[in-house]
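for the recovery benchmark. tokens below, seq after
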């Protein structure tokens, strides 16, 4: 057996990405522009972007909510999953990030399918309560607020809504019961909520990809 060293798992991730995801000018340009603009390189890995796209299509999602736009990389993957008339509402706290995302979405040809709402998600989420429910919610913002965002995902969803949470593994630190890192303890509270709150049924998978060792949780609103 090949040992699971960093070199070998990175090679496997590249193999999966090359074999199954392929290359796409708009997505690669979005990452390049995001990096040039000085945004942190914390967009999802290509295999993870494709995962989001497939989940949205498998669930027949027409209305998608994303919390944490960054430069719009995952937003492009989600917008491309939508049928005619579908929408992504994506929330971004940093106006400078939103400006990068707006350009990236336009270049990818999905700008007209996406509403970027600029502001703190905590303040923006309540304004969405009068809209039709969301079919899929992707949470990829500050980890401290994970349980708050999950509560809103349940409130803004409906039975059958798919909820995906990025970064649940945090390089293994999520299993550290003594952690005082607010990002880790915030994610621990979110996962406890997914395990115990009767509105959700959930699991999580560890990921080893271009972004390192992390994980993704997937939940169904029941
Ligand atoms: C961080 C945030 C992310 O959403 C991610 O995918 C990786 C890292 C962070 O804040 O460090
Ligand atoms: Mg993330």
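predicted aa per position
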């Amino acid at each position: 057996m090949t040992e699971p060293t960093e070199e070998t798992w990175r090679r496997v991730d590249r193999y999966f990405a090359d074999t199954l995801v392929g290359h796409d000018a708009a997505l690669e340009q979005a990452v390049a522009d995001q990096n040039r603009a000085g945004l942190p390189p914390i967009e999802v890995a290509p295999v993870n972007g494709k995962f989001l796209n497939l989940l949205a299509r498998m669930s027949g999602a027409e209305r998608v909510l994303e919390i944490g736009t960054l430069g719009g990389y995952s937003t492009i993957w989600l917008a491309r999953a939508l049928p005619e008339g579908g929408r992504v509402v994506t929330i971004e706290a940093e106006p400078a990030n939103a400006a990068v995302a707006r350009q990236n979405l336009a270049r990818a040809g999905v700008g007209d399918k996406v509403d970027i709402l600029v502001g703190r998600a905590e303040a923006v989420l309540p304004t969405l309560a009068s809209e039709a429910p969301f079919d899929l919610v992707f949470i990829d913002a500050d980890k401290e607020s994970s349980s708050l965002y999950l509560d809103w995902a349940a409130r803004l969803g409906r039975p059958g809504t798919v909820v995906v949470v990025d970064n649940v593994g945090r390089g293994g630190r999520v299993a550290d019961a003594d952690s005082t890192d607010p990002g880790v303890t915030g994610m621990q509270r979110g996962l406890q909520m997914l395990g115990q709150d009767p509105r959700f049924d959930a699991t999580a998978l560890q990921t080893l990809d271009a972004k390192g060792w992390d994980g993704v949780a997937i939940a169904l609103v029941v």
